[in-house]
Amino acid sequence: MAFRKKTLGDAPVSGGTRVLVRADLNVPLDGGAVSDDTRIRAALPTIEDLRGRGARVVLCSHLGRPKGRESETSLAPVSERLAELIGAPVEQAPVVIGAEVEERAAALAPGGVLVLENTRWEEGETANGPDLARALAALGDIYVNDAFGAAHRAHASTAGVAEHLPSYAGFLLEREVTTLEGLVADPARPLVVVLGGAKVTDKIGLIERFLDLADTILIGGAMCFSFFRAQGMSTGDSLVHEPDVVQAAVLLAKAEDSDCELALPLDLVIADEFSADAESRPSGVHEIPAGWMGLDVGEETRDAYARVIGEAGTVFWNGPMGAFELDPFAAGTRAVADAIAAAPGTTVVGGGDSAAALVQFGLGDSVDHLSTGGGASLELLEGKKLPGVEALDDA
Q1: Annotated domain spans of the chain
Q2: How many CB atoms within 10 Å of residue 118?
Q3: Is 39 a catalytic residue?
Q4: SS3 string of 133-177?
Q5: CB-CB contact of 209 with 381 (8 Å)
């Protein structure tokens, strides 16, 4: 479907144009080095297009949730990895804004790249402070937002700055929004939605919307225990958030009145503690004894879910089926990942732990669209407006 905002292709970029780019470079670090460069690679098409047109590229991003100027949340390791990926020098600014940064931006050669420090080092970032927005705008002639993973936040670098510069969507942001909006507007049928994770309340808006849109919703992860409790079943020591039980009951009632099948696990893998060394065994969903907890879906569920996924025209997946970070309880998530990778229909994975699982299993390139934004993708699919998108100039 058509994107309704101006995009990078509309941007009047020529040699020497200063382009302030908000990217999502919030990557994991290990020992002061980038341990997963997926988000950096996702930003490369926009960066390289601008460099190819002779722009002077000023990149900004947050990293982590720092409380002030913490050296361990510096973007310096990101700059080092970016330089390796583009095969050209990348300059790292010591701060986010100020006279020195403005001088460095002005001194960039065409095609040069300057990375600002962590935008969340500035108090005005998360508050969408107007002073910070204006100071960021002073670093560019135009603004490009390519940070889909932060587009659901009304921050100075994602929304406020767009009020002061001509503003465009980067290639990644455009592709994310177009793909996800198309998923709900005109999906190939059957539309199968696979949802996992811990809390029903985190996904209630998504489940409600897909009860009206999807043909089948497959539930896994710890959230299934809230549904079981809502049905009056014992769940042992499985993780249950009490407010979720009420929400689950409401959703079960809505599912009864919809044309969408809301499917729950048929069997489980249970353990006596949350540990890779725990004693574990298969279990029926009605047979979780006290002192034991469900940590993965069982073999019957894995096979049933895989069959439904294999017959889908469109699949959307968000949330693991179990505690996949512990090897003994990764089989359910792996089975869903394998089924989606092999599915003949359109396959979309909505960021967060699902994306991490795909990468962990070596399947990141096996789906049609792997979103870079967990929270942003969920809010967009729920039908919410994303501030970082809404702030851009209309097409």
Answers
A1: 8-172, 179-380
A2: 25
A3: yes
A4: HHHHHCCCCEEEECCHHHCCCCCCCCCHHHHCCCEEECHHHHHHH
A5: yes
221 catalytic, yes or no?
Answer: no
Q: What is the pLDDT of residues 219-256, one digit of tens each?
A: 999 999 999 999 999 999 999 988 899 999 999 999 99
Rounded to whole angstroms, the Cα distance separating 334 from 338 reads 6
Tens digits of residue pLDDT in 163-210: 999 999 999 999 999 999 999 998 999 999 999 988 888 888 899 999
Burial of 242 (0-12, 13-18, 19+ CB in 10 A): exposed
Amino acid at 128: N
CATH class as words, domain 8-172: alpha beta
**Are 133 and 167 within 8 A, CB to CB?**
no
* CATH topology identical between 8-172 and 179-380: yes
pLDDT value, residue 309: 98
**Among the options 6, 39, 153, 334, which is catalytic?**
39
Maximum separation of any 2 CA atoms in the chain, in Å: 69
Tell me the average confidence (pLDDT) per consecutive run of 10 residues in the chain, 395 residues long.
Answer: 89 94 95 92 97 97 93 96 98 96 96 98 96 98 97 97 98 96 92 91 90 97 95 94 92 96 98 96 94 97 98 96 95 96 94 82 90 89 95 95
Q: Tell me whether residue 199 is one of the annotated catalytic residues.
A: yes
Catalytic residue at 352?
A: yes
Q: Which of 170, 298, 352, 388 is catalytic?
A: 352
CATH 3.20.20.60 fits 179-380, yes or no: no
Residues in the chain: 395
> For residue 185, what is the DSSP state?
H
